[in-house]
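The protein record reproduced below.
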Amino acid sequence: MDAEIAIIGGTGSFDPGLLEDSRTVAVETPYGPPSDTITLGSFRGRKLALLPRHGRTHTIPPHAINFRANIWALKSLGVGRIISPSAVGSLQEAKRPGDLVFVDQFIDRTHGRPATFYDGGRVCHVSVADPVCPDLRARALDAARALPHHATGTYVCVQGPRFSTRAESRVFRSWGADVIGMTLVPEAVLAREAEVCYLPIATVTDWDVWKETAVTIDDVLATMKANATRLRGLLADLIPSLPAERACLCKDALKSAFV
């Protein structure tokens, strides 16, 4: 086992400097190359793998990410838990820029993204009724007590790379969705198919466009810097608290999934 826990770094959250005794590895997969080489090392006594979701120089747009290769590569290195920070826009007044949202549900508005490892030969109907590992969420919430955060939330995953129209943003708000992003799906679904525990951490950077204010990259980047500091503190508390053995149902997700 090269790693037990992985962090898939999103926009502004990939920091290989977190690790000691680090090295990089290139992993071949049946689905092509992952987003980049994977950095392996230790963090607070645990074996970690870091993978930049958009590539180290942020050249891969959300709709072009090879999600299957990313999850397969991490699983092949021994990873049993994935922590997945990502930048999001807020759709609700209570979720303010700078807040962390521990989303527990999603609405999928993507299209054309390969979303299963089982697209021929076997039919797999994996359950994603609750797509986030309950044990990871509970431990993350405990670690986030002193941070501005929200314990639940629904994430609307849009195709990207464009931002929403105002009409779309208002529709998503009317559905009761809390945040909007471009990468949770199919990442969460593939992690479940791989029987890997998955924890998304949505870091709010802006108000999307429902507030009559256009989203700009400059605004997003400024808030990201503050979010990155909070995220590092959260990981420093969360990762050492994770038990070596997993007791949740994620590890048996395929037990009754095949036809």
Notes: The chain has a mean pLDDT of 93. Residues 165 and 209 are 7 Å apart (CA to CA).
